[in-house]
Amino acid sequence: MAPELTDPHFSTGLTARILVVDDEPRLLTTLATLLRGRGYEVTEAHGGERACELVDTQRFDLALLDLRMPGVDGFEVMSHLARVQPDCGAIVVSGESSFSAVSRALRRGALDYIRKPFDPEELLATVASVTNKQSLLKAHENIQLRLEKSEALHRYIVNSSPDIVFMLDARGHFCFVNSKVESLLGYQPAEICGNHFRHILDDRDVARGMYALSAPNVSSDNPRTLEVRLKTRGSRRATRHFEITAFPIDPQTWPHSDATRGGGSGQSARYYGTARDVTERKEAEAFINFQAYHDLLTRLPNRALFKDRLELAITQARRSGQKLAVMFLDLDRFKVVNDTLGHAMGDRLLQAVTHRLERCLRKGDTLSRFGGDEFTLLLPAIRNPEDARQIAKKLIKALRAPFQLGEHEVFVGVSIGIAIYPDAGDCMDQLIQNADIAMYHVKARGKDGYRFYSETMSIDSANRLNLERDLRLALERNELRVFYQPQVCSSDNRIVGLEALVRWQHPERGLLFPRDFLPLAEETRLIGQLSEQVLDQAFQDVGHWIRSGHGDLRLAVNLSPVQVEHPKFVETLMQRVQAHNFPAGNLEIEITENVIMNDLDQISQKLRELAALGVRIAIDDFGTGYSSLNYLHRLPIHTLKVDQSFVKGMRSGEDGACIVNAIVAMAHGLKLEIVAEGVETDQQLTYLRSLGCHQVQGFFYGPAEPAARIAVTLEQTLASVTPA
């Protein structure tokens, strides 16, 4: 291997460095002096061996050498020069004139051949010509190398770009595209080039793309930027979003090269552009937009999107003279499921409810989750209220079937309020508010139904708001009173129990009865706080009487569905019993059949827990609900209470008597105690005694009275009570 050339006088191409080689010292000196006179940098080598040594250590642009030299001749020097310094040219200056010698020298790479004796001017002219030619060749090679490096750099930059770089001809066909198209869209550049750009545009964006290319105001200073969807290879449905920036190419400045190296010919390019993949950004924007206008649990439109669509529907209905309907839906018994089974099951229930509701809708209807377990429904362009009625019935029917949540089978219903445009309002807020008002009227009348809004409801709602405010104040000011109605043994007129009944001593309206405020208390969830006050007072009063000598006295309390359905009902009730040191065996809770049948499994478990602790269970208003022998047999029930409507209708031979007869016979067959409510006459009492109904309550023995009067009655006798 040749040693590294580190000579500090390395030729820069401005002054040629020439190596002169000859075995005759006189001729060697003459050539060197002649060349130095023309400004060349000359190095002398006496003989071929010395020349090879200098070639190994110094850089030369040209060598002038003799062929016939002892030891190492000129041919060997040329061979060595070709190996070590191939860029160094050689001119033979020799007395050898044979054709074979000249031919051999030229084949070895000699640039020219000068015969001895030489003409000095001819030699200098030959040297000048050769050095000039070498300078031009080196300059060309240098420029070519720089061009290749520049092209390689630009090719690397273009193909390493994160964007698709492309060129289109005047007709919109690809004439260049970089390799990024393969990783982003799956196409080879060769597949794209020659095809019109619309072939990779999504069908929905073809018109926009074609217009953008032909827009008159597009220029190099004002490029066209637009977002389009591009199809990926292999599936027309697989699309990605791209931001395209394109502008025309000035034909005067475009170099018109024959071909590009990125695929296709760039000679006729008229448009240059880039396509940046913005799919992730668009998906993020779409997700953020979805979050802003949809409920993530049910995937339904949220309140904001519902209002936008309702506003638009009102505008269209006003313009076309049509009607529309707004429904407000509130799930019945959802809170029970959510509190009992947990929020995860509650969420699954909301999703299942949504699925059922959506199957009932028409194309163009908008169902939204308004919040919690409340939904709103927009029915645009209905012909008459009957259309809304039919949809409401379908919704109610769809939710009546049980829902299977894991191992649990649960039941929910729905209360629906309906507001028709323009009858129930001509603006968005009015329609939603009136549908909400109508829904609350459904709740007040037993739930699981629908009602259309009417103007009278607004008056009721105003009263309802005032009453709700007063009721909250009543709970704070202890305005609630507990009255007691005796339950009497019909055979000896002895008081065996007291039913606790709440009254409200309203500061302006006087004494209010349960029917005046209990439905509102249930709707507003104040029933829990109200019941706590009633129970505390009843446990205190009756507990005192029990400890004062009436050890067998029974306290009967009527509990609302909201209380019984609460997951901590048993725990909460027994905590209050223990807090007041009230004997559990003296407590009888009254619930209706409907409460039991709403969720038979859950209620059965709670009742069994209470019965195991000594608490008695009574079915209130028996005969007005399901009256199922199945649940009577399965549950730990102690008492049936005959509804007062049957007692009032009781006449010899009438239907009321038949029903009472059947209920009493059923109670005896099941070994249950029976209490007849609403007994007002001696005739009713006598008939009930004949049937074997030994416990009664009603005005015959007196109305419900405050604790002070009941205390007086109990003090008068510990054995029997004289009929009023």
From TrEMBL:
<dbReference type="InterPro" id="IPR043128">
    <property type="entry name" value="Rev_trsase/Diguanyl_cyclase"/>
</dbReference>
<dbReference type="InterPro" id="IPR001789">
    <property type="entry name" value="Sig_transdc_resp-reg_receiver"/>
</dbReference>
<dbReference type="Pfam" id="PF00989">
    <property type="entry name" value="PAS"/>
</dbReference>
<dbReference type="Pfam" id="PF00563">
    <property type="entry name" value="EAL"/>
</dbReference>
<feature type="domain" description="PAS">
    <location>
        <begin position="150"/>
        <end position="202"/>
    </location>
</feature>
<feature type="modified residue" description="4-aspartylphosphate">
    <location>
        <position position="66"/>
    </location>
</feature>
<keyword id="KW-0597">Phosphoprotein</keyword>
<dbReference type="InterPro" id="IPR052155">
    <property type="entry name" value="Biofilm_reg_signaling"/>
</dbReference>
<dbReference type="InterPro" id="IPR013767">
    <property type="entry name" value="PAS_fold"/>
</dbReference>
<feature type="domain" description="Response regulatory">
    <location>
        <begin position="17"/>
        <end position="131"/>
    </location>
</feature>
<dbReference type="InterPro" id="IPR035919">
    <property type="entry name" value="EAL_sf"/>
</dbReference>
<dbReference type="Pfam" id="PF00072">
    <property type="entry name" value="Response_reg"/>
</dbReference>
<feature type="domain" description="GGDEF">
    <location>
        <begin position="322"/>
        <end position="455"/>
    </location>
</feature>
<dbReference type="InterPro" id="IPR000014">
    <property type="entry name" value="PAS"/>
</dbReference>
<dbReference type="InterPro" id="IPR011006">
    <property type="entry name" value="CheY-like_superfamily"/>
</dbReference>
<dbReference type="InterPro" id="IPR001633">
    <property type="entry name" value="EAL_dom"/>
</dbReference>
<dbReference type="InterPro" id="IPR029787">
    <property type="entry name" value="Nucleotide_cyclase"/>
</dbReference>
<feature type="domain" description="EAL">
    <location>
        <begin position="464"/>
        <end position="718"/>
    </location>
</feature>
<protein>
    <submittedName>
        <fullName>EAL domain-containing protein</fullName>
    </submittedName>
</protein>
<dbReference type="InterPro" id="IPR000160">
    <property type="entry name" value="GGDEF_dom"/>
</dbReference>
<dbReference type="Pfam" id="PF00990">
    <property type="entry name" value="GGDEF"/>
</dbReference>
<dbReference type="InterPro" id="IPR035965">
    <property type="entry name" value="PAS-like_dom_sf"/>
</dbReference>
